Amino acid sequence: MSPRITIRDVAARAGVSAGAVSLAFNDRPGLSAPTRERIRAAAIELGWTPHTAAHRLARATPADGTVGLVLARPARQLGLEPFYTEFISGIAGVIAERSGSLLLRLVHDRDRETAVHRAWWKDRRVAGCILVDLTEDDPRIPALARLGMPAVAAGHPGLTDGRAAAVWTDDAAAVEEAVRYLALLGHRRIARVGGDPALGHTAIRTRALERTAADLGLEPARSLPTDFSGRAGARATRDLLASAVDRPTAIIYDNDIMAVAGAAVARELGLHIPGDLSLIAWDDSQLCRLTHPPLSAMSHDVHGFGAQVVRSLYDLIDRRPVTPGPAPTPVLVPRGSSAPPRAA
């Protein structure tokens, strides 16, 4: 069997260093045209070609446009979540315009997420990354700052301490609009089925709900945490509706899938929507219009939100001025699931 030809053999035949061979085949500056041709001729003579994966890796630069997105959540839950379907679609549309790629990874926890970012950056597999599901004192922010990796956070800038560009929706203003709308209908006991309390946007919504209810003189608003799944949304709805004394007359949900599950629970308990219970969903996916009655919702352009986030990241990668700022605030779309309570 003939010995395998290596880059050192090509270098020896051309009378140059192995580094010069690498420069020649990666189209990097630093070699004269005659030297470059001599190296290529030596490679042809020996029948040597660079390893495809290594060649591609060596050429990886921010201009290649590969964007990384790591999600710490179960794959099955991601497939059922309309928000991420639309968000990733918006990202992918912009990336396609750049002839780039989206590198998506699902992991179990934040430590693993940071490890993936570190490996991607070390191996030059991505030009930058998008961060989602920010928490207060989020450890990913300083970790990426130390790496020097371009990153844009899809979350409130108060959660980044100014160390990462941010694109966000004004969740506090959206919650206030929903509560004021329900109060105008005559509701005084308003509850919420929220998400993970460790997440920054969950905490922002919780504080806005409590503050607005207090400002309007409503009964103290109760929020129950969940993992955003339909099963958890149904369980939280049952807990809220278990008492006939302080049972809420309206519930706001942190996503559409939990609102749909909550509507099913209300019907299971013999409650009429919206006469006995008004419901407001969040995000306003197609699920809201397919449910009977159709769900009122805090609607926003999730596809456009994803596009805005990745455009900001490309500005950062290309060293153009980045103008972080809010995406359009979710707006209330009343439908058949909200009305004055019977007792109003």
TrEMBL record:
An example Gene Ontology molecular-function term: DNA binding
Key words of the record: DNA-binding, Transcription, Transcription regulation
HTH lacI-type domain segment(s): 5-59
SMART domains assigned: HTH_LACI (SM00354)
InterPro entries xrefs: HTH_LacI, LacI/GalR-like_sensor, Lambda_DNA-bd_dom_sf, Peripla_BP_I
Keyword DNA-binding attached: yes
UniProt region (Disordered), positions on chain: 325-344
PANTHER family: ALANINE RACEMASE (PTHR30146:SF155), LACI-RELATED TRANSCRIPTIONAL REPRESSOR (PTHR30146)
Protein name (Swiss-Prot/TrEMBL): LacI family DNA-binding transcriptional regulator
